[in-house]
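hiii, so i know i said id send this last week but things got crazy w the move. better late than never?? heres the sequnce for the chain we talked about at the cafe, plus the structure i predicted for it. fair warning i was half asleep when i ran it
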Amino acid sequence: MSYFICPVCSGKLDVRDNTYSCLNRHCFDVSKEGYVNLLMSQQSSSKRHGDDKLMVRARRDFLEKGFYSPLQKLLCKAVSKNVACGGVIADIGCGEGYYTKAVSLTNNYNVFGVDISKEALKYAAKLVKNASFAVASAFSLPFEDESCDCVLSVFAPSAYEEFYRILKSDGVLIKVVPLEDHLWDLKSTVYDEPYKNKPEIRNDDLFRLVSVEELKYNITLDCNNDIMNLFKMTPYYYKTGREEIQKLSFMTDLETIVHFAVEVYEKR
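okay and structure toks below
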């Protein structure tokens, strides 16, 4: 069953023979990789949509090693606690599907992943067979008003107005955000003047914070490939000069703090 709507006319999309179509005969084919592109050109002015191949591969390879598995388990726990069996979950900014897969195997949920990056969804659609995926902007989501029981936002842009629109009146928003000490040791290695992460900006007009669960632990990376993958999967990589990046190029071990929060919100 499809919960996606047409990006042209906002009509409900039905899927048949690998094609999504609405009553106004707007049609969108499922790609050979398994996702549908619902991103209209005017919805993004950027030539590069979302994470590129380098970042996606680095994140996939890093996460497959299990470094963030405690976070994955904590997220699934929060979802199970707050979303009834069979609920509709929209994973916004789902990336290559690491967290999407874990959630999709819990409580018979109907899971839909959205990301603006085609490169990310190529992996996600192959990894998660019991979910549907669409290329779309978080700020113009292809879901009907009040159609979702839960919105997941894991290290993704906070499009609060859209989250509010697609959530049912009793729906929940579950966010994963980095806290102040996240990757502190990594940043201390690269930068002469590292900085703590700033708190996420909340929208208290639309959402009420219900609970916060913090997770903080150390990870040990014992090869340069893991160290570089961790750095490449962060926004820091694209904002850092060549000389600073070279500080990591020959490192073979690194221990760093990871520091997250899983936040649960209700609609006001």
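btw Helices lie at 53-64, 69-82, 98-104, 118-127, 160-166, 184-190, 224-232, 242-249. thought thatd interest u
miss u guys!!
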